[in-house]
Design brief:
Layout (H helix, E strand, L loop, with lengths): L9 E6 L10 H20 L3 E8 L4 H18 L4 H21 L3 H27 L4 H14 L1 H12 L8 H19 L7 E4 L4 H13 L3 E4 L2 E4 L1 H6 L16 H8 L6 H5 L7 E6 L14 E3 L1 H13 L3 E7 L3 H16 L5 E7 L2 E3 L2 E2 L10 H7 L2 H9 L7 E3 L1 H27 L13 H22 L4 H24 L6 H17 L21 H25 L3 H14 L5 E6 L2 E7 L2 H40 L14 E4 L5 E4 L7 H25 L15
Parallel strand pairs: 1-2, 1-8, 2-3, 8-9, 10-12
Antiparallel strand pairs: 4-5, 5-6, 6-7, 10-11, 13-14, 15-16
Helix pairs in contact: 2-6, 2-7, 3-4, 3-6, 4-5, 8-12, 8-13, 12-13, 15-16, 16-19, 17-18, 20-21
């Protein structure tokens, strides 16, 4: 579909934000980095005026339950119960847990429950072992008790919540938990270079607007009150002219599991399910139960349903019709379908959202990732392994709407792409430093090589633009850039082989274009014209500061090498190599020597250079081992040949008793293993072997100055 905003160049964009009850993980990164790339492209490449709104869900069943569990578990642990009571309580907590494990049909969840049970059983066994062997030492028992509580935390917290969750009256815990994880989320997004929203909305700050929105849906005839809650009438909505429920995923209507997940864990009790007119109806307003936060409404104390929150906040900021709505593909049904139905029921239109964009799933080494399954990698953990740029390049190398696998293999591809870019930028910077940039000397006649490279550059810009227009196909963009860099590298190598200087202007155009594109994608920050920033802690351009000194040093070293070669002073040459290979890499400097050309200086991070050095040493060691292996093979073959020559022809076949049973007086086989005379064809073949060995043996004996037993030259075949 051609993208046509409602208001000229202005784009009204709403994005579903996180439900903040735990640390942000790579699934969040998948969605928010992908949407950040799309937002930047629309804003900075296509020059739309994007107005971006995102929400924070800080009222939700998951938050309420987690806050209560944390509160109750913390109170339980600070009570310092004796280990025997802890053991008794864990046994009680395991009873409902075992029932949940038995009834679970989802294989992934079942496997998670089984792992939890195994962990608790191990901790219980250890606790019993320590208590029996403690000899009155409290420290050992206390450590085992703490380990037992840690291993059983989820199970005992769930048990405590079932027993005492309704008794929690301190409402501050329901706001402190989401506040903490919202702050954590913002830090993670900043670390990933994700732009902040123009407007950020929190559900807790829009409760009155939620009440008004629900009331309007009820007034329009699409909502009904039941037992203090308000539900959306999906049947009535679908029957109304101009409306139909589940526009995005119509085939999912009736999916009981998805509908229950959408309603929330605290909202699927029998009484609430019975309160609905139809199974597909969903809560707009939930009557609060004891142990839950609540607000006043015409229907009594309660809180907003999950789906209504986004409809309300997006409409409050962006109006009755949005251009773009984004979120993860897992939100399509029921969340986004319910959002659509609610908003269109409120505003009596059929175009609350013009374009939905859903980011694809993220898997971990091919496996499903889920916070509820405790199978996730936090953003902080990922950033300990890879940089924000490398993660972004991973996403850029894949379609934003497809499933992406986060694994060592996929990250290796992203890291190699980053290295390709970095090496190209460093090479171009060296060309720009070593060639005239002003006056007559800056311009030389173009040859076919320059014409060909420039055409490739212009063609690449066309390919990239076409890819951008094709649903922002960043993968195709990066592949086109890879191809362009390959052509430019071949050009530079070819020109340097001819002892000519590359054309600085073409390389400057190419490198600034690639830098500009990567800035648009959010892979490069700052105001640097070319390549990845090399900044000091004070924000100073490292290259500007240190390159003049390094260039002076490199020039001096090159002159020293020339003098040393002329005078054959090998020790000084070795020292020059040691500076290049050992000293400078530890300072983050790569110095490349090129015969007949000035040395090339590149600033690269120290870790990369040290890793390169390790790989180089490893390759050299592998070459040495391979050389040694080949040398040994040659020696072994020579020794085997000599050993073979020492065997008299009369002894050649006698050891092969599994093949032959009788031999003549010269040791030649006459009968096979079964006692049958050998056939003529076999005798002919053996004769050739015998005569060959006889020749080898005679050569050996002649060499040793002795006489061979086959020197009489008898004809064994009788011919």
């Amino acid at each position: 579909e051609v993208f046509v905003p409602q208001y000229g160049r202005r784009v009204l964009w709403y994005s579903c934000g996180p439900t903040v009850y735990d640390a942000s993980h790579m699934g969040h990164a998948r969605s928010y980095i992908s949407m950040d790339i799309l937002r930047r492209v629309l804003n900075d490449y296509f020059n739309y005026d994007v107005f971006f709104c995102m929400n924070i869900t800080d009222i939700d069943d998951k938050i309420i339950k987690r806050a209560r569990q944390n509160y109750l578990f913390e109170n339980y642990t600070t009570a310092s119960h004796p280990w025997k009571k802890v053991m008794d309580d864990i046994m009680l907590a395991m009873e409902p847990f075992k029932l949940k494990l038995e009834n679970e049909t989802d294989p992934d969840k079942k496997a998670m429950y089984e792992r939890s049970a195994e962990k608790v059983n191990k901790a219980v066994t250890e606790m019993e072992k320590v208590s029996n062997n403690s000899g009155g030492q409290e420290s050992g028992v206390d450590m085992a008790r703490a380990a037992l509580l840690e291993a059983s935390k989820d199970i005992i917290a769930d048990w405590l919540d079932l027993a005492h969750g309704s008794e929690v009256t301190d409402n501050s815990i329901f706001s402190s938990l989401p506040r903490y994880f919202e702050e954590d989320f913002h830090k993670d997004m900043e670390s990933l270079n994700v732009l902040p929203a123009d407007v950020l909305t929190r559900v807790s700050e829009y409760v009155p607007e939620n009440v008004d929105f629900v009331q309007k849906i009820v007034d329009n005839g699409f909502g009904y009150e039941s037992r203090g809650s308000v539900y959306f009438d999906t049947d009535k909505f679908s029957q109304a002219e101009g409306h139909h429920y589940a526009k995005l995923v119509p085939e999912a209507v009736g999916d009981k599991k998805a509908l229950q997940e959408g309603e929330g864990e605290l909202s699927i009790s029998e009484d609430r399910l019975e309160a609905k007119k139809h199974p597909n109806d969903f809560a707009l307003w939930k009557a609060s139960k004891p142990g839950e936060p609540s607000w006043d409404s015409p229907w009594g104390k309660g809180r907003p349903g999950w789906h209504i929150e986004c409809s309300v906040m997006a409409s409050a900021i962006l109006g009755e019709s949005l251009d773009i709505h984004t979120g993860g593909v897992d939100l399509k049904f029921p969340h986004h379908d319910n959002e659509l139905a609610q908003a269109e029921a409120c505003f009596n239109n059929d175009h609350w959202v013009r374009y939905f964009l859903h980011s694809g799933h993220l898997t971990i080494a091919g496996c499903k990732m889920s916070k509820s399954l405790k199978n996730f990698i936090t953003i902080k953990e990922a950033l300990q392994q890879h940089t924000a740029r490398q993660l972004r390049l991973l996403f850029l190398l894949h379609s934003w709407k497809d499933t992406l696998d986060y694994s060592p293999n996929s990250m290796e591809i992203a890291i190699k792409y980053e290295k390709l870019l970095s090496e190209f930028f460093l090479t171009v910077k060296d060309v720009l430093r070593s060639t005239p940039g002003h006056g007559v000397a800056a311009f030389e006649k173009w040859t076919n090589e320059e014409l060909t490279l420039n055409k490739k550059y212009l063609d690449t810009r066309d390919i990239v633009h076409e890819a951008m227009c094709d649903s922002v196909n960043t993968r195709a963009c990066l592949e086109a850039i890879r191809d362009l860099i390959g052509t430019a590298n071949i050009y530079i190598s070819s020109i340097k082989t001819e002892k000519r200087q590359p054309n600085r202007q073409i390389l400057h155009n190419i490198s600034t274009y690639i830098t500009w594109l990567l800035k648009i994608f959010g892979a490069i920050g700052g105001d640097f014209a070319i390549g990845f920033p090399q900044e000091t802690s004070q924000g100073v351009d490292m290259e500007e500061v240190v390159i003049p000194y390094l260039a002076a040093f490199a020039d001096f070293r090159e002159k020293v090498r020339q003098v040393s070669r002329e005078n054959k002073v090998t020790e000084i040459l070795k020292l020059c190599d040691a500076v290049r290979d050992d000293t400078l890499p530890n300072l983050g400097v790569r110095l490349e020597d090129h015969e007949g050309m000035p040395p090339v200086i590149k600033l690269v991070d120290k870790e990369t250079l040290l890793k390169e050095r390790e790989e180089k040493l490893m390759q050299e060691e592998l070459k040495r081992q391979e050389k040694e292996k080949k040398r040994k093979e040659v020696e072994d073959a020579k020794a085997a040949k000599e050993a073979q020559m020492k065997i008299p022809p009369s002894e050649l076949f006698k050891s092969e008793t599994d093949k032959y049973s009788k031999f003549d007086d010269k040791g030649f086989p006459t009968h096979d293993a079964e006692g049958n005379e050998l056939k003529k064809s076999a005798i002919k073949k053996l004769t050739k072997l015998y005569e060959t060995q006889e020749k080898k043996y005679n050569e050996y004996m002649k060499k040793m100055g002795g006489k061979s037993d086959g020197a009489n030259g008898d004809n064994l075949s009788g011919e």
